[in-house]
């Protein structure tokens, strides 16, 4: 649920899950907490009148969500289980994680559905085109820092393509020395879109971009709408990476 299907089929206000959730995301989810958090947060962000982002504090106070992730008594707090599922969903790329606030302890985490619309919001927020209040729809108080968490290329490969073997890890390390990380991630996304889940295919896309230019399609049989420049400039792996 991290490609343009989410924009086409899961727009805010529709509540519909994109087809890619069933074909690419759901088969790879092993944690029940991640699944429940994913479904609940998607509902919050896409229901009619829903906000563009939801804060961690709101999720920690969401009784329906907490009851869902921990339906029976046990030693672990429901909030801890919920946060674990949330981090797994962010690592998978289903949601974007934004930290805003002051440089001291007054920091707040927000979560957005990973769609083109959300990535554009974060791009405009990072560039100063909009304020945190305008982007998130709420008064978040004084803002001195804006950080976006984005998983590294190794995590993305395991979540989208398959097992990270030593050979593939070596290939990723070599690719990181040559290409920007957003290129590598975008190449993986295209490999998934074309149902060509292999490192050689991803590497082939990167090599083509290197020799022919990134605006050139990786498969001439696909329309240019799959490879428009906006996907490359507002992709999920921008220049702001939380340390």
Q: Helicity level, as a percent range?
A: 40-55%
- Helix-strand pattern: HHHEHHHEEHHEHHHHH
Main sheet strand line-up: 1-3-2-4
Beta strand count = 4
Q: Approximately what portion of the residues adopt beta-strand conformation?
A: 5-15%
Domain module count: 2
SS-based class:
alpha+beta
Give the topology.
Layout: H1 4-9, H2 19-25, H3 32-46, E1 54-55, H4 56-60, H5 63-69, H6 78-92, E2 95-101, E3 107-113, H7 116-127, H8 132-136, E4 145-149, H9 153-160, H10 166-178, H11 181-193, H12 199-212, H13 229-233
Antiparallel strand pairs: 1-3, 2-3, 2-4
Helix pairs in contact: 3-6, 5-6, 9-11, 11-12
How would you describe this protein?
It is a single chain. This protein is an alpha+beta fold. The chain has two domains: 4-149, no CATH class; 153-233, no CATH class. Helix content is 51%, strand content 9%. It contains 13 helices and four strands. The chain has helices spanning 4-9, 19-25, 32-46, 56-60, 63-69, 78-92, 116-127, 132-136, 153-160, 166-178, 181-193, 199-212, 229-233, and strands at residues 54-55, 95-101, 107-113, 145-149. The chain has a four-stranded antiparallel β-sheet with strand order 1-3-2-4, with helices on both faces. A hairpin with a 5-residue loop joins β2 and β3. α3 crosses α6 (78-92), α5 packs across α6 (78-92) and α11 (181-193) packs across α12. The longest helix has 15 residues, at 32-46. The protein is globular, with a radius of gyration of 18 Å.
């Amino acid at each position: 649920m991290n490609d343009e299907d989410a924009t086409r089929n899961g727009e805010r206000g529709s509540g519909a899950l994109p087809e890619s959730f069933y074909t690419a995301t759901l088969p790879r989810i092993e944690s029940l907490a991640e699944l429940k958090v994913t479904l609940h947060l998607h509902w919050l962000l896409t229901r009619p009148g829903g906000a563009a982002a939801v804060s961690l504090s709101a999720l920690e106070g969401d009784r329906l969500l907490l009851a869902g992730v921990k339906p029976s008594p046990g030693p672990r707090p429901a909030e801890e289980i919920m946060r674990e599922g949330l981090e797994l969903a962010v690592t998978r790329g289903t949601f974007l994680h934004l930290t805003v606030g002051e440089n001291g302890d007054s920091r707040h985490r927000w979560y957005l559905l990973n769609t083109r619309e959300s990535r554009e919001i974060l791009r405009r927020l990072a560039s100063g085109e909009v304020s945190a209040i305008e982007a998130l729809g709420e008064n978040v108080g004084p803002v001195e820092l804006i950080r976006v968490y984005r998983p590294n290329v190794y995590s993305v490969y395991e979540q989208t393509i398959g097992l990270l073997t030593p050979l593939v890890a070596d290939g990723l390390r070599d690719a990181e020395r040559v290409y920007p990380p957003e290129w590598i991630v975008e190449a993986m996304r295209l490999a998934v879109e074309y149902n060509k889940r292999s490192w050689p295919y991803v590497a082939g896309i990167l090599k083509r971009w290197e020799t022919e230019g990134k605006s050139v399609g990786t498969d001439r049989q696909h329309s240019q709408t799959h490879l428009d420049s906006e996907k490359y400039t507002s992709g999920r792996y921008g220049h702001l990476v939380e340390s």
